[in-house]
Automatic annotation (TrEMBL):
<dbReference type="GO" id="GO:0005524">
    <property type="term" value="F:ATP binding"/>
</dbReference>
<dbReference type="GO" id="GO:0016887">
    <property type="term" value="F:ATP hydrolysis activity"/>
</dbReference>
<protein>
    <submittedName>
        <fullName>Spermidine/putrescine ABC transporter ATP-binding protein</fullName>
    </submittedName>
</protein>
<dbReference type="InterPro" id="IPR017871">
    <property type="entry name" value="ABC_transporter-like_CS"/>
</dbReference>
<dbReference type="InterPro" id="IPR050093">
    <property type="entry name" value="ABC_SmlMolc_Importer"/>
</dbReference>
<dbReference type="InterPro" id="IPR027417">
    <property type="entry name" value="P-loop_NTPase"/>
</dbReference>
<dbReference type="InterPro" id="IPR017879">
    <property type="entry name" value="PotA_ATP-bd"/>
</dbReference>
<keyword id="KW-0547">Nucleotide-binding</keyword>
<keyword id="KW-1003">Cell membrane</keyword>
<dbReference type="InterPro" id="IPR003439">
    <property type="entry name" value="ABC_transporter-like_ATP-bd"/>
</dbReference>
<keyword id="KW-0813">Transport</keyword>
<dbReference type="Pfam" id="PF00005">
    <property type="entry name" value="ABC_tran"/>
</dbReference>
<keyword id="KW-0067">ATP-binding</keyword>
<keyword id="KW-0472">Membrane</keyword>
<dbReference type="Pfam" id="PF08402">
    <property type="entry name" value="TOBE_2"/>
</dbReference>
<dbReference type="InterPro" id="IPR003593">
    <property type="entry name" value="AAA+_ATPase"/>
</dbReference>
<dbReference type="GO" id="GO:0015594">
    <property type="term" value="F:ABC-type putrescine transporter activity"/>
</dbReference>
Amino acid sequence: MSEKTIIRFDNVTKHYGDDEPVLKNVSFEIEKGKFYTLLGPSGCGKTTILRLIAGFIAPTEGTIYFNGKEINHVPANERQVNTVFQDYALFPHLNVYENIAFGLRIKKVKTDEMNRRIEEALKFVNLKGYEQREISEMSGGQRQRVAIARAIVNDPEVILLDEPLSALDLKLRTEMQYELRELQQRLGKTFIFVTHDQEEALAMSDEIFVMNEGIIQQSGTPIDIYDEPINRFVADFIGESNIVSGTMIKDYLVEFAGKTFECVDGGFHLNEKVDVVIRPEDLELTTVDKGKLTVTVDTQLFRGVHYELSTYDKDGNEWLVHSTKKAQVGEQVGLDFGPEEIHIMRLNETEEEFDARLEAYGVWNNEQ
């Protein structure tokens, strides 16, 4: 375990009764001072991980460590973590000051020290002067800031955030993404954020754990996961993707859509069946004679900064294209792309095998 590691899960499984496990033999490490996001669809196990860290539930199997010490059965109130809940869990009959002071009063913190901590917490969340404001008089964004202030006032080492932006409208949500990220950097605390919104995860995180069906499918930086998804689920869940079946002719040469193309991925077997990913923004709309693929435009939508075209090739493969150029529905057009825009995914590859292959064949990629 690294000195930077603050939380570690070793082969953690969680059952509720006789049901299928919500978490399946999950292992990972969390480092101090970083912003982590647990990303995945509803029911994938991300909130269960948060509850296990907080101490609200205990693992069925496996071990959880905090600063190198096992905490499987350490009570929630003895852990150096605080949680910001989806509904903020504020007391409506208490004002801002009393909501933030609640935990400090339970700990019997002296009044002078309590006032100092609350004033400091309110400064951090840009709510200085709101001490006597009633919760009912505050906007959704302000209530969220109160919930965050209540979480940080106890000076925890880790702050857990369970989909705290989901109730906000789009504009406020975007503003709060910036505020949360800035707050985490100013505090220097470890944030673990739960969301099903991939744009939110990409915008805010140092590292993302993509989850599905109780398993961490892939972990890494937002750029790593977006550019090098490990499988169809990750490629489809993180952003929009064109995914077609292909065959590796040899390393750095792949066949799909009836043609053979150079690519930048290696470490495959001869004639191995693979999945091929090309992002919509990496496809350039051009004329048929200049394109590597010929497609027919099925629909076209204007998205403000680009046109979104749904197209299909002669084999029936659908290709989503984001382009600044317009086309006519029913028109045949060309799609151009380079080797670096083609990402190859091995079927049923584990994250360990994936990382090893990228490391072994990364020199060729970097030199291109």
